[in-house]
Every structure is written in structure tokens, then in C-alpha cells.
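Re: export button greyed out
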Amino acid sequence: MIDTSPSLALVATIVVLVTVGVYLLLERSLSRVLLGVIILGNAVNLLFLVAGGKAGGAPIIGQTDEDAMSDPLPQAMVLTAIVITLGMTAFLLAMAYRSWQLNRHDEVQDDLEDRRIARRAAADQAAFEDADADVTTTLDEDAALVRDETGPVDQGAAGGPLHATLDEAAAAGRANRSGGEGR
Amino acid sequence: MTLTDLTWVVPLPVVVPLFAAGLALALWRHGRAQGVISVVALSVVLISSVVLLVAADEGPLVLDVGGWAAPVGIDLVADRLSTLMLTVSSAVTLCVLLYSLAQGVEDGDAETPIAIFHPTYLVLTAGVANAFLSGDLFNLYVGFEILLAASYVLITLGGTGERIRAGTIYVVVSLTSSIIFLLAIALVYAATGTVNLAQLAERLPDVDPAVQLALQLLLLLAFGIKAAVFPLSAWLPDSYPTAPAPVTAVFAGLLTKVGVYAVIRTQTLLFPDGRADDLLMWVALATMVVGILGAVAQNDIKRLVSFTLVSHIGYMIFGIAMSTELGLASAIFYVAHHITVQTALFLVVGLVERRGGSTSLDDLGGLAKLAPVLAVLFFIPAMNLAGIPPLSGFLGKAGLLQAGVQMGTPLAYALVTGAVVTSLLTLYAIVKAWNKAFWQTAPAAPPATRLPAGMVGPAGALVVLGVGLTVVAGPLFAYTERAAATLRDPVQYVTAVLPDGARGEGQSAEVAEDADAAGEAPAEVSGDVRDDGAQDDNREGDG
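Workaround output, generated via the alternate export path:
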């Protein structure tokens, strides 16, 4: 059984690689993200080597004494991981290039719908517009028009503050409000 | 034993689509031949999955790939959970394939280049099957990578600006989660010297508890990104809606569920003491509530449905986090229900987009009159998703709520409340979509198209399948309960894979070497070799 205590040099290298990789991964440009992925992938590959213990002889029966053999399994896994990372790198490169073809830059773009909803939320507008022709008033407007039995209510006072919060976008619909009472 | 006769079926769901993918790629000029190959391959997968589903009810089927004994070689394990997932997913992939074939006939090659689509789609299916069947952590990673690589191609199909934008987010997030998964595997190997799930189940309890917890959380982080649970879910609604409808449908149905499956598998088999349960509870609650609030705010029907997808992953995590048999059984039932319903919903939304000419709820309208069949096809899975009795969504939720109340802790009650609120908000979001797309007067005249029967048919078949789950809910729930019972008792899994406690049933030269080293006669080796020495030897010969 080979010594499995981790080598300090490898661990230090992994730490540096992960740091650099994560930093690059957080960048906006796809080519930097790509570099980050490659570096992170290599850091993990090194971690596998640490997991396998100290380097020993070739793991071939008859050539190396069993106690002095390297653990071959992490190497097999690292090989698989390298191949996979290679494929992913190629795809990411192609995608970055396509992004550059289309937009003349390779930056990760904002999601438009997210931005739109965030803008509406900041402006305190409704998330959607109701295009149903039967109803041209909002609930607040209807509430202002309905008589309250519990006491005399000044319609103007009740409607005033409510109207202030109404959706700007519905203003067009409110123009023909005179017919709204017939709802 | 008749069961051993059926082990040759176990690799078929992985091998057949992969082989068919190669064949389809070779025949890239012949679109019709590609279609035939894909349909035949996926039908074979469906049939073998059903065979496995029945056979696995007697006990897990284990195949040592290449005849190499389990901890040394890679093994495929078909137990109740994996075969159920496999059956539902292959039924869904077949329906989606038929839908996309019809769409290809309608639209031609421009939006979705068929020559690429078929091989990639088959590879995706193989990856999903491999992830479900894998009995080895590293093979699970390979399964994930197969399906992810295929999904990268599918989500950027055609390379339009919008899809590249959405694909960028998806690819980068997925790559990050893959790296985290790989990191976790490296640490697991460093701690235990094996990546075989059954052997890990034996060795992990001996590992230092703090290290165990770190490994558990790392794996949960990796799978959580794939399953899109709350703090890790932001990528999903940004990236899914822009892909072609069949692609979105199959992603929504399957890919997140593969993540959920991996969580179930690792939580029950590797970390059965449930130390992350409270964390998972909170995550489930946040996923449900935050996801559905996102859906309520949406104005685009595809995005709305994507947000409900995120939200309902929370139900499954809730079931897993309870760590009780009923909770787990309900979670598995819910996964099966959700795969069919969510896929059906995305396919129907694709039809809505085609008929109404838009996915924005402001521009849709009057579809109930224009396309009554479409309205029915939308209404049934929508109500099923919201959990209206007696549909399967209701049954799954009822099971979860029952399990939560049985548990009786304050946190469980909070989850029960959250689940009910989420269900109501789902109904609200879905009814809003229904009112606007189907009942309001159309703001603009919709394009004068007819929906091709070839697309309505498969979508309808999936809706019927979803309703069918309600009809067979009794036997299905009994099956998931048995599956949960198996999962709660990891010994069954371990003894199925490693019958004598150390080696699987395949042959390996290593066994003979071990025997020579130990001075035993080679013939006796398959007997009892579980001792301290075997552990070290396994480590050397693993893989």
C-alpha cells in the first residue's frame, strides 16, 4: 500500500489554480470563462492525483512490487475527465465564436425579460396588461364608484389617493371610463 | 433463476440509443431514415424499461459491465427507483420525438436542423439512462456529462442570437456544476478509496463525520444546480424558454429530474443518517415559494411554466428531506407525475405558440374558441400541475402533506403550509395564463394556421399518459412505496451488488491474484474475502 499523505506542493498548486479559475469564471467575457473552466478542470485533475497518493511504479503485475505501485484508478478517472473537458472546451470556444459573429463581442448578455420585469417592478407597474374589452376599469376604480352603506363617503376623497397609484399603462383604457359603470 | 436471465436487458437503454446515434449520424443525409432509426431505438428502450420495471420488483438487477466483478469493474444497477424513472422518461422521450418529427415535417430544416437533432437527442437519452442505471459515482458523472453535452447542442440548435444568449448561461452554469461534482468525486475517492456506490455505502460510515458532511454537502451542491433548487435555480428560467418546444419539453421533464434522482440515490444510499435533512427542508420551502412567486410575476407563458417547474422541484426535495418511507414514496410518485405533466405542458405551450403566434400573454387570446382541442390539452395538465383532485398531482401532494403531518415537527408543518400555498399560487398563475391565452378577446388576429395532427397527437398522448397515472395511482403508489422501502434499507442494494460482501458476480483476474497473495486456493476466492487486506487490494484494483 502506497503512502497516501498529500503532497504540499500539489495542494498549493491546486489552491492557486482554483483561485484563478473561480476568478476567471466570474468574468463576463466567454473566453475568460473558458480559461477559468480549463484551469478549474486541471485543478480538480490534480486533486485526483493527490487522492491517489504518492507516485509509485507502473501498476503492472510482474513489473512493480505491489506495495510500490501507483494507484491506477485516479489516473484512469483523470484521463476521462481530461477528454470530457476537452470536448466541453471545444464547444464553449465554438459558442464564444458564434457569439462574436452575431454580436461582435463574446460577453454573457443580460436576460431581457428579467430586465423588463425588474423595470416594471421598480416603477410599481402591473406585470401584465389586461386586454379584455369588457372591463375597462380597474378594481380600485370600481371600488371608488360603488356606494358604501356604512356611511356617506366623499367619492372624490376616496378616489383621489387610489388614482395616484393606478397603473400608468391603463390610462388609455380609462379614457372611455364613462361607459365603465355599466359593467 | 429467471432473474439472472434478464440482466442482459439492463444495458439496453444505454447501448441502443448510443448505437442508434452513431447510425443516425452516419445517415445524416437521409432525414427519413434517421427518423425511423430514432423511433425504433426509443421504442426498444421503452420496451426494455418496462421489462426491467417488472423484473426489478422482485429485486435489483445488477450487471457487472464486461464481466468485471463489481468494485473492480463498473456496474449497472436496475432497482425499483431507477427502472421507474427509466420507464417514465423513455415514454416521455418517445412522445417528444414523435412531436418533433411532426414539427420537422411542418417547419423544414431552418429552425431545427434535423440532421443534428436526431443523433444528439439519442445521445441525450443514453446519458439519462446511464445516469439512472449507474451503480458507480464516476459513471454517474459520465452519464451526466453525456446528457449535458447533448443538451448543450440541443439548447443552441441553429445558433440564433437568442439561443446563444440563453445557451451561454446554461452551459457555463452546467460546466460549473460538473466541476463541483468532479471535485466531490475526487474527495470521495480520497476519503474512501472507491467510487462504487455499494462499496461507498459500506465504507462511508467509517469516515470522520465532519468529512462525511463535507462530501454530502458538495454532492448536494452539484446535484442541486442540476435539479434547480432555490438558490441555485436562477439559470433555468433564463435558458429553457428559448430552445425549440420539444427540446424545452424534454429538458424540463428529464434533466432536472436526473438531478433529483441523484439526490435521492446519494441521500438514501450513501448518507442514510440524514444530517442534511433540515437544510434540505429549508431549501425545499424556499424553492417552492420563491419559484412560484416568480411564475406569478411572469408575462410570458413559456417562462411562467419554467418557473412552475422550479417551484415544483421543491415538492420532491421536501419528500426526500423528510427521510420517512411515506415521504420518499410520495417524492418518487411526484417525480413520475411531474415528468409527464411538465413535459406535456411544454409541448402544449409549443402548440399555443404556434397557433397564437406568440408566447406573451398580452398578445395571446381567444384560443378557447379558435382551438378547443388545444384548450382541453392545456387545461388538463395545467389543473394536474396545480393539484386539483382527483388528478395525480393532487395524489402526490396529498401523500407529501400526509407525510409532513405524520412527521409533526414545526419545520414539517411550515413545509406543509408552504406546499399548500404553493399549490394555490400555482393554480393562480395557471388560471391567469388560461384566462389570458384562452378566454380574453384576442388583441390581434392570430395567424391563420392549422395545428398539424402529428404534433397534437403526441402532445395528446402525453396528456393521456398523465391522466393514466391518476388511473393507476393505486398500484403505482404501492410500487413507489416498495421502492422507498428498498431505498430506506441500503443493505438490499449493497448485497445485490456485492453478494459476498466484497466482490460482485463478474470475473476478474485480480481475484486470482488476491488469492495467490493470500495463499488460498483460487477456487475458494469467490467466498469470503472481506477482511482488512481486501480493502486495500480493492483500492488498488478499482476501476
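Residues 8-103 of chain A form a domain with the Helix Hairpins fold (CATH 1.10.287). The button fix ships in the next patch.
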